[in-house]
DNA sequence: ACTAAAATAT
DNA sequence: AATATTTTAG
């Protein structure tokens, strides 16, 4: 009978749902309704299962509800963004907006005013367990973001955290620049919340003319809110770098390429610095794989490839076409294909050898050509060789 | 008290 | 733009 079959299917579905619930459990704070929905669905299904047969009139749809159909309508409810302004800007889907009209929003270049006063807020303090406290969206009291859901538009700044990896919570702290002279009055780094089904914005966006809340207490100072270079952000960074052919890229170019709104030159610059730093021979006496136990794929020829990286970069670029880029990839983000999934494994294979990384340290994974260790920097690999 | 990362200064 | 220094979050 097909009945049994149905039961079976239903059962499976419930299991799937439960697993799903486990997954989002962590984000209870961010997705309370989502959790609730799933829970309800599970219950409904179970009821149906146990409640025996027929009369699935009322909740007949429960099972299929979230799958797809209801998704649309419901989705809106989940979107944290409350658009206060009645005027819905709906037009800004995916136009171009490549241009940088992003960072400027209220990013004043003023030097910091020296006015200084008391800092009175500590709103954070009680975030001990991150997983829980991680916020996909900043819950900062200001959702001034004009551009909401960028949808598919890549341009904006949709970034996601998490995924397979590490993501760090955003910190929203206001430390006052108590520096003696100069105070920045850069715009308040308000954070947008953009979400696409499972995506959360990771990048802050400037406030538009939106209107700041009363948050910034009349002080123009404040050390810029730290920008969190989430894996995704970094991914974009790398991507941009690749497109520019290596490290020569100027921060400005990089920033533009990244198309992340709210990202400033300085931030990129800083990040670039760090990147180069790490990129350039972490050398002296760096023995990577130390553990005799053969950490499967540690490899790391390279340098500084944050956990989540690999896949991301690979993915993007692979999809991409640029040959040159690939080279770049090879260089900086060659490694590590984690056990789980990830179809494309490159040359991660021989990991075992402790490889005389020794002093050279530079991972020369590059299929070919590589700079000499000491003298030249790693940079040119891409830039020089490929025709540009 | 230490470190890495980001911000800011030169 | 490159590097150096300072500040700060973990």
Automatic annotation (TrEMBL):
Compositionally biased region (Basic and acidic residues): 93-103, 212-222, 354-367
Keyword terms, alphabetized: DNA-binding, Nucleus, Transcription, Transcription regulation
Compositional bias segments (type: Low complexity): 183-202, 368-388
Keyword ATP-binding: no
GO MF term (any one): DNA-binding transcription factor activity
GO cellular component terms given for this protein: nucleus
Residues in HTH myb-type domain copies: 221-280
Name of this protein: Transcription factor LUX-like isoform X2
Localization per Swiss-Prot or TrEMBL: Nucleus
Region annotated Disordered, chain positions: 52-128, 163-227, 336-388
Source domain of life: Eukaryota
Composition skew (Polar residues), residue ranges: 59-71, 344-353
Matches recorded under InterPro entries: HHO5-like, HHO5-like_N, Homeodomain-like_sf, Myb_dom, Myb_dom_plants, SANT/Myb
């Amino acid at each position: 009978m097909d009945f049994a079959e149905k039961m079976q299917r239903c059962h499976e579905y419930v299991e799937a749902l439960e697993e799903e619930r486990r997954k989002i459990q962590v984000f209870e704070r961010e997705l309370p309704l989502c959790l609730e929905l799933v829970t309800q669905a599970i219950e409904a299904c179970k009821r149906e299962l146990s409640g025996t047969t027929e009369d699935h009139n009322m909740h007949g749809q429960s099972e299929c509800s979230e799958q797809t159909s209801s998704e649309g309508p419901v989705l809106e409810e989940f979107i944290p963004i409350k658009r206060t302004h009645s005027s819905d800007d709906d037009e800004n889907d995916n136009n171009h907006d490549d241009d940088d009209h992003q960072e400027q929003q209220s990013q004043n270049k003023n030097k910091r005013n020296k006015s200084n006063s008391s800092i009175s807020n500590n709103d954070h303090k009680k975030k001990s367990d991150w997983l829980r406290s991680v916020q996909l969206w900043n819950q900062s009291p200001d959702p001034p973001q004009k551009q909401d859901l960028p949808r598919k538009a890549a341009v904006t700044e949709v970034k996601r955290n998490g995924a397979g990896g590490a993501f760090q919570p955003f910190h929203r702290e206001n430390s006052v620049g108590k520096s003696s002279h100069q105070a920045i009055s850069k715009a308040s780094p308000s954070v947008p919340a953009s979400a696409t089904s499972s995506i959360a914005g990771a990048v802050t966006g400037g406030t538009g003319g939106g209107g700041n809340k009363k948050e910034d207490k009349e002080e123009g100072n404040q050390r810029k809110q730290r920008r969190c270079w989430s894996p995704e952000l970094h991914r974009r960074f790398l991507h941009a770098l690749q497109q520019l052919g290596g490290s020569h890229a100027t921060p400005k170019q990089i920033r533009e390429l990244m198309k992340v709104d709210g990202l400033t030159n300085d931030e990129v610059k800083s990040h670039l610095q760090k990147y180069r730093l790490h990129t350039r021979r972490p050398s002296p006496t760096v023995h990577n794989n130390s553990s005799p136990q053969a950490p499967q794929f540690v490899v790391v020829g390279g340098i500084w490839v944050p956990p989540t990286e690999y896949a991301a970069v690979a993915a993007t670029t692979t999809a991409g076409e640029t040959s040159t880029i690939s080279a770049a990839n090879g260089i900086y983000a060659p490694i590590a294909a984690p056990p789980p999934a990830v179809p494309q494994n490159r040359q991660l294979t021989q990991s075992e050898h402790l490889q005389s990384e020794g002093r050279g340290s530079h991972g020369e994974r590059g299929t070919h050509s590589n700079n000499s260790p000491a003298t030249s920097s790693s940079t040119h690999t891409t830039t020089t060789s490929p025709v540009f």
